[in-house]
Fold:
Amino acid sequence: MNTLPLWPFALLATLVALGYRQSRERLVRPRTLARLAAAMLALSLYGVMSTFGASLVPVLAWAAGFAASVRLGGPVFAPRGLAREGEAVRMPGSWVPMGLMLGIFVARFALGFATGTHAAVMDEPWFVATACAVLGLLSGGFAARAAAVRRFAA
Structure:
């Protein structure tokens, strides 16, 4: 008998809780945001590598999405209304981090489902490149936010 794994639901609950916490005004240190960005980068890249392997197309597509998000996503992802308080930064609440986290979760879940059902689309280069670029874009949003806060705090 197949049992439904519980860890995806635990992970989803954790991501929703983290996202909700970031929807409230808070005082953060720039390195805390950098750690969150690194964690989301790792989750996203792990998703690419575990699903498609370390081959050229998936990794380059992910890197291109990540770079585009970091380079061009600052105005979209950067928090507004920051205020410096000592070494920390007061940030207004934002639903953007939750959207990014849930985007990564949904993309990874969909890729896991497609892999588990042996969907033919998983062998299509256009799909592989698109899925990897989307994961790169989403994780790059965290890096763009962290970089904006770091520049503000400097």
Notes: The chain has six helices and three strands. The longest strand covers residues 88-91. The longest helix spans residues 125-153.
